[in-house]
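Appendix B.2, paired examples.
Example (i):
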Amino acid sequence: MASLKETIKEQQAPESRTVADAFKSKNNNKKMISAYVNSERYDKFKAINEKRGISNNSILNLIIADYVLKYEEILK
């Protein structure tokens, strides 16, 4: 059962939530995606992530979460 603090945080307006909060959501259904990307840009993306010691998947999830938090108001 979620604590009162977690419940309140989940009900807050999108602009007061953070990307980290979005990852903590209880509705973490896994989805696999496929995309065509510029190979040169993707190679740089992979190299940067490798040097940072973070997975490509983690960064893609951060990018998607940030995008959703920024634009989810459109859905209302």
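Example (ii):
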Amino acid sequence: MKHPVIAAIAILSCILPASCSRDKTPDVRSVRWGMSIAEVKKAETAELMKEGVNVLTYRLGGEPETTTGTATVTIEENGETHDALVTVETISSEPSYDLVYVFEDGKLAMAVIHLRDSFDDPADYIRLMREKSLAISKELESPAMGVAEYGDNPRKEDPYSAPAEICEGKYTLKHMWPTVRDRTGISIELDSKINADPPDCNLSVFYESAKHPVDPALSEDLHELL
């Protein structure tokens, strides 16, 4: 018969998270908060562009993608018309992004996915923001909380109606998921690029650790810059 003290120790060892199988769900892409720089470099599959003090910068997207499909068209031949099946090849390119990992005390604390491309039509920033927001909400099974910040400028009845004014710095849009699994704060921010001429927009997705937060001043600087 098992000694009751030994049995109790065995039960307690499975209650303590350090002794049992823990949730290994990634917090961002394939990495988790608290990882070291070496661990993130081993887990991340994107192209490493730059390594700085407590910062790793990777490149995402930007590569052309070819898709092939079929379509039925009506053609005229020898005075007669008939339907024909043709192959249609479409070449599209996903926008390119900087993926920035930020470390605090040697542990992963923040990640930013920052749009590198510029769009001629400011409405394309709204479209992309909505696409990214919908994908995150679908993954989390949770709707975003939307916020518009106007400062001293007039409020909009429809904050999505004037993307050019966002690029001019008159107001900003944010979609937020404050706490995910009690581990992560996520936000998408659309605002103006600093000192851009002509005016242009910034679009970034921020992931911030609840347990290993970066210095608040650094977080504020990154939100303002990216």
